[in-house]
Amino acid sequence: MASGDGRRNRHDLVPLAALISREMRSEKMEKPTVRYGHAAQSRKGEDYFLIKTDCQRVPGNSSSTFSVFAIFDGHNGKAAAIYTRENLLNHVMSAVPPGLGRDEWLQALPRALVAGFVKTDKEFQSRGETSGTTATFVIVDAWTVTVASVGDSRCILDTQGDSVSTLTVDHRLEENVEERERVTASGGEVGRLSIVGGAEIGPLRCWPGGLCLSRSIGDTDVGEFIVPIPYVKQVKLSNAGGRLIIASDGIWDALSSEDAAKSCRGLPAELAARQVVKEALRTRGLKDDTTCIVVDIIAPDNSEKPSPVKKHNVLKSLLFRRKSSSNKLSKKLSAVGIVEELFEEGSAMLAERLGNDNATGQSTSGLFTCAVCQVDLAPSEGISVHAGSIFSTSTKPWQGPFLCAGCRDKKDAMEGKRPSGVKVA
Hints:
single chain, alpha+beta, 19 strands, 27% helix
C-alpha cells in the first residue's frame, strides 16, 4: 500500500537540510489556507474530537506542516474515545518510515493509518475496559486529504459546483451487507434484539455484545471480529479547494450528506459547524451526542478563478492502488472534475492492508520491527503477516512486514482463527 521505496529506506538517516530541500522541491503550487470551526451538543457525554493544526512531517520545518481533524463517538462509556483521542495520532506517526519526502510520506499514510488504528485498539483492549468508539480521522496536507474511519461517524466533501461526496463508509450492520457477511464468517452472529414473545426489534446487532457496528476501536466484550481496521480514502483537491464536514452519527441520523452540506453553504467554517448542528437538532431533536467539525480548504487568493482541471494522469493512476470492497458506496470523485482520487481501500484483512516488504524491515538497532506496534524483534521472533494467511498478497511467507507474537495473535483473532485472548476485568 505504502511506497515500497519508503519502506526499504525506512531506517536510512537523511540530513535535515536534504529533507527541507526535498520538501521545497515537492511544492508544485502554493499551499491553501485551512480554516475550521467546531460545534457540539451533548446528551451522553461520549463524543470527543481532536483538532491539531501544527503537526510537522519534518520537525522544525514549518513548510512541512499538516493538520489533523478527528471525531470519536464513544459507546458503553467514554474511556475508549478519550484513549483514542490521546494516542491515535502518535501511533499513526510512529508507523510512518522516517526520512521520507512529502510525496512518499503521503503514499505511506494509508498503511500507517491501519497500523495506528490496530495498535490503539490492541493497547486499549489490554486495559480490560469494555467501552468502544468510532473514529473518523482526517489528515489535511496542503491540497491532499487522507481519511481513515471505523464506525458510523462520517466525513463528506463539498466541492465547487455543489457536488457532495462521501469520504468514509458507514460500518453499520443494518446497512452494510459485506460487513455482515464478514462478521458471520469470522464467528459472530448477526440479529435483532429479541423481546418477550419472540418479536425482534431495533437494528441489526452483532452477538455477543449487541453492537450495531462491524468496526470500532475497543469493545473488548464484543469479540475481535469487530475489527479496528479502517476504511481509508485519499484525494487531492484542485486549487478550487473544498469544504469537509466531519460529524458523529447524531448529525447523520438527522441529515443526509447533501442536506448537511446545503444547510451551511456560504457561511464561514465556525458558523457553518453551528448551523449543521442547529439543523440536525431542528430535524430530530437532541437524541444523541451531536458533534460537527467544518474544515474549509481555500486557495490563498480565493478571488481568483480556479485553473483548468488537468486531464487524468494515467501513469499516476497505475502507481496508486485503488481497491475497495465498498466502491459501490463511494462516488467516483474523479468524475467531478475537481478531485483526483489517489487511494481507496476498505478490506478488513490485516495481511492485505499491510502489503509486502521486499527488504528485511530491520530497525536501527539491527533487529526486525513489528509493523503494527513498532517494537524491535530478534530475527527468530518476527512472524510474517503473510504466514498462513489465505488473505495474503504474497506467495512468500518469509517476506515482511513482520508482526510480534501479540500482534499476530490479534490478527488471528480478527480473522476468526481463534477466540480473543483478551480478558475483561
